[in-house]
Amino acid sequence: MERSSKEVEITVALVGNPNVGKSSLFNSLTGLNQSVGNWPGKTVEVAKGTLVYKGIKIKVVDLPGTYSLTSFSEEEVVTRDYILSGEADVIINVVDATALERNLFLTIQLMEMNAPLIVALNMIDEATKKGIEVRDDRLSRLLGVPVIPIVATSGVGITELVEAVLARPAKSRRLTYGREVEAYISQVLSHFQNIESPYPLDWVSIKVLEGDPIITSRFLKDAQVLEKINSIMKTMEDLHGEPPSVIISSERYALSHRIAQQVTISHTKPAITLEDRIDGLLSHKVFGYLILLLTLSGVFLLIFSVGSSLSAYIDEFFVWMIESIRPHLQSFDPIFSSLLLDGVIFGLGAATSIALPYVALFYLLLSILEDTGYLPRAAFLLDSLMHKIGLHGKAFIPMLLGYGCSVPACIGCRIMETRRERLLLGALVVLIPCSARTVIILGVAGSYLGPLVALSIYALDLLIVFLIGKLLFKVLPEEPVGLIMEMPPLRMLNITLVLKKTWIKTKDFVYIALPLIVLGSFVVSLASSLNLVGLIVNAISPVTVGLLGLPVATGIAFIFGFLRKELALIMLATYVGTTDFSTFMTPAQMIAFTLVMVLYIPCVATLSALIKEYGLKNALAITLMDVTLAIFIGSVGIRVLMALGL
Amino acid sequence: MLEELLEAFCKLKSKLGTVTREDVTKSGFHEKELDSAIANGLLQEEGGQLKITDRGESLLLNHRERFIHDSIIHRGDASARLNSVDHWISCHKIDRSCIDDFYSRLKAVPYHIEELVPLLELPEGREAEVVFLVGGRGLISRLCSLGITPGTVVKLLRRAPMGGPLELSVRSTKVAIGRGVASKVLVKPI
Ligand SMILES: Nc1nc2c(ncn2[C@@H]2O[C@H](COP(=O)(O)OP(=O)(O)OP(=O)(O)O)[C@@H](O)[C@H]2O)c(=O)[nH]1
Question: Do the beta carbons of residue B43 and residue B37 sit within 8 Å?
Fold first, then answer.
């Protein structure tokens, strides 16, 4: 009997250390666009995609990167549970050929679990460049699993890899450790002979020896056995002076060291390379900070100057277009004309003038920083600063992402190790002005009061972030978790990849935000022609006018700003009927307005990301904090500014 | 032996965080021994939790010194050696949890204590062998999974200024670790 091709389905999971190219491989396999970048810890969600090859449907699952499979971090548990669930028919272990020893540590653990394994030996191009040759045939023999050399970014070896998947590798077998450790494992194993377990008993024994809390509580219910095992563990600890988990890790590393030595041939002597020199400069005590300062100010200057002039051109073009169409339509039907021109076309113009210059430019520059591997260097330099607010260097990365969009920044907080740190950082990143808020800062304070005022608002925002960080650190005190971070090698830029990534991120903005903005503009111009907006805006005037001393109309910006920050200015302009904000706001009001807009409430998308990451209660607490903060800073700010005579 | 009970108590404390009566009796001590430790003012019971008193603490330290004296520093003049251990500890500003761990694991360390320094104090460009790791299980596990296991040779590439982290070369990769972490990794410079 023949089965239709639809019924045949293979599920493969990609497992590997952070930053080895899993997402790149996922993208080459599925043609989808998982985010890729040269810093460890980007993939935090399990991503799924499919590929059809020779009529067979292959489901591909991209798991978060992990170095090990203990139960100390969420990523490790997610990955481990997935492998144990048996959902995947094949596990592809993506391995970085330039750091084989470290990568095989995970391979060895996957083999302990008897996973049906294929090793994808990635970054062969990098290895060749570094004069490292990996004998894949010998590696395959030593491990007893198929090994396929690939280059995930260019697609080399992908067909062979898929063929290997279709051949369905057998379950892998655990490698043997030193005699002593093996003796301990079999001692534990002897207590498990008549235990029902869906998992390999050897693996359970090893985990029990390691003191893994999840496995121990599940399989060690008998008090007598528990006592015996504790005494085995104690013997190990007394003899070696290290807890069993460390002894076993050392054992695995000893094994991967031996294997790596046997399969790699170094053609060049390790000399100081150009990369090392550049790296030395980037992390240098003095020059490193100088370069960091130059890089960050360069990024912002580029966005400010190129972004705002580009944005102005686009604006002008749309104004020109609207005004040249208006006379023709007006005579035809004035209401329709106003809805189309002041609603739809105006919204479209406003959205593109934000999206293209600011959003695309920021993502372009961010991609460059990400792909070269500069971000971890910056994190290295900023570690001690971050310690002042109870976090460590890695926290810098989500903060920088926050200047683009708060949503990826919130999700990016998962690179922190503990829940408390994630929450702390999450509360801070939403206060960072995202690209939409940058538009407000530049569009209001920047264009009417000069770049210096815009810069001061940025500086003030950073100060507020820092102070709130310090405050939260006081409220949620705990020893900050120390920094332990891999520093990926610096890489040459692949321009195609960078442009592709920029497009993908900008596309998200265009597809999601653009329709909303156009729709919003349409709704506002419709509602204002029906005099509805006035009612709502008047309803919140006690806050806007009473507390903040702003014009009544600004209420519209606060309402729409909650939907999307990009909407705030556009809707305000649509409502008031002018993009010249100086006609209805004093300088002091413009500054206060900008400050409140920057701080006041995360947009809906960010709020839902917050709820997803930290739960409803914490998300609401963060929102409440932001609103209070915004109103406080705004109302104090405007009074101070007015006293200064602005 | 009350000292042994105190040692066991400290181990439990670092493992569990809080220690109750049952925890101690479960690890093989008699109720009576526990009572006498309390009666002697070495331990205190507060709301079901056991705490060590200052007196208990000093007895423990004494005991540990004798332990080193007997089992480790058997070469040469014992009392001179003992002084140098204390001296070593005070020189390197090792934190308290480190010292506790240190004493209980000293027996199995293949090197002489004075040969070791915390990684934090290794000069730039120098290589060293990791001898042991102290600290919580999570921390140790994170260090191990990045390849910083006992016996590994690491090289200190550079340290960031102003209390910043250290960058190491480990197993042909580069790893950055914070100062706090680096003070919990004891190494023998090569
Ligand atoms: N030269 C070269 N670079 C590669 C190759 N595969 C991936 N890269 C680069 O390595 C970096 C990391 O790749 P990712 O695909 O993001 O890695 P990942 O394993 O998904 O990382 P996490 O999400 O952090 O776990 C990116 O900068 C890629 O462009 C390769 O085969 N050769």
Answer: yes
CA distance A595 to A636: 11
Q: Is residue A389 within 8 Å of residue A423, measured between CB atoms?
A: no
CA pair distance B80, A514, nearest whole angstrom: 78
Instruction: Give the pLDDT band (50/70/90) at residue B66.
Output: low
- In this prediction, residue B99 carries a pLDDT of 56
**Integer Cα distance of B169 and B190 in angstroms:** 15
Q: Which domains does chain A have, with CATH numbers?
A: 9-166 (3.40.50.300), 179-266 (1.10.287.1770)
Spatial neighbors of A421 by CB under 8 A, at least 6 apart, are: A390, A391, A395, A480, A481
The overall pTM is greater than 0.80: no
Nearest CA in chain B to A72: B138
The band of B103, judged by pLDDT with boundaries at 50, 70 and 90, is low
pLDDT at A121: 95
Per-residue pLDDT at A358 exceeds 90 = no
Residues 6+ apart with CB under 8 A from A410: A398, A426, A429, A430, A606, A609, A610, A613
What are the pLDDT digits (tens) for A163-178? 999 998 989 899 988 8
Residues 273-312 of A with CB under 8 A from B: 279-280, 283-285, 288
List of domains in chain B: 1-113 (1.10.10), 116-189 (2.30.30.90)
User: Is the confidence at residue A36, as pLDDT, over 90?
Assistant: no
Q: Are strands A147-149 and A117-122 parallel, antiparallel or unpaired?
A: parallel
Angle at A28 between CA A25 and CA A31, to 5 degrees: 130
Closest residue of chain A to B174, computed from CA coordinates: A487
* Angle, vertex CA A573, rays to CA A567 and CA A588, nearest 5: 100
- Best residue of A70, A242, A275 to probe chain B, by most B CBs closer than 10 Å: A242
Q: How many helices (H) and strands (E) does chain A have?
A: 31, 9
pLDDT-derived band at B77, boundaries 50, 70, 90? very low
Scan for tokens 């235990």, then name that residue: A195
For strand A9-16 and strand A56-62, is the pairing parallel, antiparallel, or unpaired?
parallel
Instruction: Give the DSSP H or E segment for A562.
Output: helix A555-563
What is the C-alpha separation between B67 and B1, in angstroms, rounded?
Answer: 14
Q: How many CA atoms lie within 13 A of A605 on its CB side?
A: 19
Ligand 1 centroid, distance to A15 Cα (angstroms): 13
Give the best-scoring range by mean pLDDT among A231-235, A386-390, A410-414: A231-235
Band of pLDDT at residue A543, cut at 50, 70 and 90:
confident
DSSP secondary structure letters along A97-133: GGGHHHHHHHHHHHHHTT-BEEEEEE-HHHHHHTTEE
Q: If we measure between CA atoms, which residue out of A3, A2, A53 comes closest to residue A30? A: A53
* Buried b or exposed e, range A451-464, using 16+ CB within 10 angstroms: eebbbebbebbeeb
Contact between chains at A249 and B149 (C-beta distance less than 8 A): yes
Q: Between the CA atoms of A169, A170, A176 and A182, what dihedral angle is there, to the nearest 10 degrees?
A: 140
A345-350 average pLDDT score: 74
Distance (angstroms) between ligand 1 centre and the Cα of A19 equals 5
Note whether ipTM > 0.85 here: no
| Residue B156 token pair | 């200190």
Pairing of the two strands A90-96 and A9-16: parallel
Measuring from atom 10 of ligand 1, which residue has the nearest CA? A21
CA count, 13 A, side-chain hemisphere, A37: 24
Residue A95 pLDDT grade (very low, low, confident, very high; cuts 50, 70, 90): very high
The reported pLDDT for the residue numbered A110 is 95
Share of chain A above pLDDT 90, in %: 15
> 3-state secondary structure string, A295-310?
HHHHHHHHHHHHHHHH
